[in-house]
Amino acid sequence: MKTMQSSRLFRLLALLFACSLIAAACVSSEEDEGADDVTETTDDSGDDAPADDGDDASADDEPADDSDDADEPAEPEVVEPFDSYPPGVTAERILLGMSMLDFEQLTSMGLSPAGWGDQQGIFEALIDDLNDRGGINGRMVEGIYEFYSAIDAADAERVCLIHTQDNQVFANLAGFVGPAGTADICVTGTNETIMIGGEIAGDELAKSVAPWFHAGPTAEYQTINLINLLVQTGRADGAKVFTMGGAAAASEEAFSIEQLEAAGIEVVGSAIIEALDGDTIAQDQELAVAFERFKASGANTLFVFGTPSAEIRGAAAAGLTGQIAIWSNDSGGLANLGATITDKSIANGALVSTGPTDSEIWESETFQTQCVAPVVERIPDHDLRDPLSYAPDEDNWFNPLRRYCLALSIFVQIATAAGVDLTPETFEAAAYGGAFDDFELPGVGPASISREKRGAQDGVRLSAYDSTLGDGGLGPVTELLDAYQ
Question: I need a labelling partner for 384 at 20 to 30 A (CA). Which of 17, 46, 378, 413 fits?
Fold first, then answer.
């Protein structure tokens, strides 16, 4: 996970971070420093207020003006209705907030061996290509680009406030992941702003007011898909499962146990690891205790809910990797284990539900034309190539391209269907109006969304972690299947 830090980011970090820690509703007052980074919507509705009494009184002392002009009232300034509602939309433009992972921080802390290339450049290239093709129903798209810390929820909320309050964007693209994922509700709930991306979980979705979608399956559907595929393929036979996850994913514990038991799979224990990813020593101490409980329970299978790096590291320290089955409901977390696991072969064989492989997406004609080509054309020194060819210490440009191109594609298709009268209400009506019961995403293929299914991807398969794939990745175990047959 990666970043290209800009000078704007450092200014905003210095000026806004302290403010966002004070209160979730804090709005930056550092307008002078950030003015070149903020696209403002001007509301001139106050220009039509009557003159104050002092001006009227002074007029009594003046002789009357008999000219025709003096008898005619001043013509009021016309204000476009889009200037006040909806936020982020005018007759000419749509303002979007783009949130990107701060890989400079992750690499400096040893939490990732490399980054994701020029993330902002990739986003800008995709937006420029969209605008060159006419934008969305004639409106040009503009972006507010901000980087956030994946391990600092307060910093992610800072970015939320920059997008939703300082700039009043119409929607956020990419959302927030990891411990910072708690800021998703700052966007979709507190500030009632549309989001495409983030980490959609049931408890967060219940707090969400604005429409919220994701290219891949939501956390709940990753769990459901995985369990259904394990049962279909016979891999759940005889399993005695111990569930485990970090505090950031604690809300997934009960749902995971419920789904396992509903599928007839025995659950013999569970544990929550409270220490966060930045505190490896404390994590390892908790993991040692948790795996003593694992052994005592008679479990032969570890089900990890949420990011699985710490739990896999703990299983290896307990001498269990290679001896037990490991199931993960987080494909993104399993594919990107991070630098706290130095020998990634300990994760080999861990199973997860996925969609098309990275190579399948890369080789897709629609991904090449809609996602790759705009970046290649606009960033001459790009390093876009087959994702399996990246070494562990090389910036992986494919990861952000896939993430951002799919999020933008979902937004553009729904916003286009919403028509010229683009509001949160028309956007939501378009999303649930039936047109998106069956649509296509570049590289992913068939997709659908509904009020119940917020993750678009339809085809799924079992995949396993393989440390020999590039810098470590997921390889297919089964063909793409219907998890509900």
Answer: 413
Q: Which residue range(s) make up the domain with 130?
A: 7-25+84-216+358-447
Q: Which helix (H) or strand (E) holds 366?
A: helix 365-367
pLDDT at 84 over 70: no
* Together in a domain, 286 and 347: yes
User: pTM of the predicted model, to two decimals?
Assistant: 0.69
Tell me how far apart the alpha carbons of residues 271 and 290 are, in angstroms, rounded to a whole number: 6
Q: How many other CB atoms sit within 10 Å of the CB of residue 407?
A: 27
**Which amino acid is located at 310 in the chain?**
A
- pLDDT grade for 20, boundaries at 50, 70 and 90: very low
d(C-alpha 117, C-alpha 107), whole Å: 12
Q: Is residue 39 part of a domain?
A: no
Overall average pLDDT of the 277-285 stretch? 92
**Distance separating alpha carbons of residues 27 and 340, to the nearest angstrom:** 36
Q: Please give the Cα distance from 458 to 437 (Å, whole number).
A: 11
Q: Which residues pair with 269 in a beta bridge?
A: 242
Tell me whether strands 93-101 and 171-174 are parallel, antiparallel or unpaired: parallel
Task: Give dist(CA 298, CA 207) in Å, integer.
Answer: 38
Do 89 and 122 fall into the same domain? Answer: yes
Is 138 in the same domain as 224? no
Check residue 485 and give its pLDDT: 61
Element at 440 (helix H, strand E) = strand 439-441
Cis omega (within 30 of 0) for bond into 86 = yes
- The reply to whether 88 and 210 lie within a common domain is yes
CA angle 438, 441, 446 (to 5 degrees): 40
| In a domain? residue 49 | no
- Asked if 199 and 223 touch (Cβ cutoff 8 Å), the reply is no
- Is there a domain that residue 245 lies in? yes
- Which residue is it, tokens 């329970």? 297
Q: For 102, left (φ over 0), alpha (ψ -120 to 50), or beta? A: beta
Tokens of 84: 């006040």
The enclosing domain of 299 has a CATH number of 3.40.50.2300
Domain count, the chain: 2
Residues 294, 302: contact at Cβ < 8 Å?
Answer: yes
Same domain, 472 and 341: yes
Cα 347 to Cα 25, 307, 341: the distances in Å are: 41, 13, 9
Q: Same domain, yes or no, for 16 and 121?
A: yes
Residue 279 and residue 401 in one domain? no
Give 79's contacts (C-beta < 8 A, 6+ positions apart).
Answer: 43, 44, 45
> Length of the chain, please?
485
Residues 13 and 142 placed together within one structural domain of the fold = yes
Average per-residue pLDDT for the chain: 84
With respect to residue 42, please indicate whether it lies within any of the assigned structural domains.
Answer: no
Separation of alpha carbons 119 and 125, rounded Å? 10
